[in-house]
Design a protein that fits this description.
- The N and C termini lie far apart (39 Å).
- The chain has three helices and four strands; from the N terminus they run E-H-E-E-H-E-H.
- It has helices spanning 25-34, 59-70, 94-103; strands spanning 12-20, 38-43, 50-56, 75-82.
- It is of the alpha+beta class and 108 residues long.
- Strands 2-3-1-4 form a four-stranded antiparallel beta sheet, covered by helices on one side.
- It has a single domain, classed as Alpha-Beta Plaits.
């Protein structure tokens, strides 16, 4: 059973890309893992180091999240992205697994 965030008052989904100094990566990783309003945090490739997902009651609270992330020691830049609408959320991973097992793009 999936709980709908909006029914809990969490009406805004926001994603953040964080650019972090190389010497602060471990510290930022730890802070992200401990932050209660962060739903997901991923270390990623590319020009940014982390992708963070936050659910919030309103854009006002998201603004506070931007400030909090930007004030973390070692964070150089924060890029925020607000979700307008959820297009897809897998309710089960079995179909994903079956796709890759049987008909995914051929390698080699």
């Amino acid at each position: 059973m999936r709980v709908e965030p909006a029914k809990l008052g969490l009406k805004v989904t926001a994603f953040f890309l964080l650019k972090v100094r190389a010497d602060a990566t471990q510290e930022v990783r730890g802070r992200l893992a401990e932050t209660p309003y962060i739903v997901e945090a991923h270390e990623v490739t590319g020009p940014y180091n982390f992708l963070v997902k936050v659910l919030a009651p309103s854009q006002k609270e998201v603004s506070g999240v931007v400030e909090a992330l930007a004030s973390m020691p070692g964070v150089i830049e924060v890029l925020s992205i607000l979700s307008l609408d959820e297009v897809k959320l897998a309710s089960s991973l079995s179909h994903v697994y079956n796709y890759w097992l049987s008909s995914g793009p051929r390698r080699g």
